[in-house]
């Protein structure tokens, strides 16, 4: 594409009064159906470009598969995942999902025409983010000029103004002649609340490195927002998906030696079709305090059958409080009406890993291992968290997934030993 493709003849007076290309702001969300002239199937595409958040995402859904690339310019990596979806609802063991993260300089997109500018030469780490214009291939620096007015099926019979530009970009490998059909102002706003949106985008041109290869795409845009509000969920890898993390620059935080946390265990069943059966059921709730240095721990719980078996108790509907003296092996149990001090076998309780009395480290309690790989940010119960995942195989050689999410792990300012040590000492007398 060259300037000769943009040559339009207007008088000086006409040029002064020509419509100017609308501004798209610093960030945008665009959703559209994309048809490739050389492909047999259309694709649904969603773009999220957050300039000030230094992040962007492109997802493409076609023939029951979703391809997505998440650009983290602040860290200089791109995370790509592929989800295969069956033709019917429900879970299928044949679904093979993949996810990996690479340095931006090593990134190779699945679709060349659907990619954002990245540097192939800069050093690793934080990258300079492109402008929204370059991401959408529109406006400056591409010298878009007014071409014509049109009303047609491409724009759903909404009157539009066509702006034409030349897009020559090495990062996308194509030299494109681009037409943006901007809907004119209507008596009402578009669904996104915008006064004008690009209703139809047409791009055509050869591969810069192979003149025999051409791309010709048409984008039908029902949804476009400029400078929208973004949420972290828009840029997350789907929950439950394990990612191979090649940059290996995200280290696990150190687990403190003294901490507390709450955990609720939910159980559910799937029927033969993979659908949820009888909903979720809460089976246990625990609040845990742990001090590795002075070897004291406490669990307040609504016990499961396994908990009752480990503690040597009969079935009860009451809440149980268990205080563990990890030095002596004694456990003090109490509920609303009774309390008892019991010696518990070290191999059947929560904080020992061997019969000889070896105590689990804080990392072992949380399941932290060197095999965990960084997945990215996620949101759990409204709280943003960093997530690591690990793939493990059971004895039947079937792949299982374990996901470890860190919301906040802070060292206790007041040790639990302060309020419990006297009680534990009294028991041992």
UniProtKB/TrEMBL annotation:
It holds the Pfam family LolA_2nd_metazoa. Residues 238-410 form the LolA-like domain. It comes from the Eukaryota. Coiled coil: none annotated. PANTHER family: ENRICHED IN SURFACE-LABELED PROTEOME PROTEIN 9. This is LolA-like domain-containing protein.
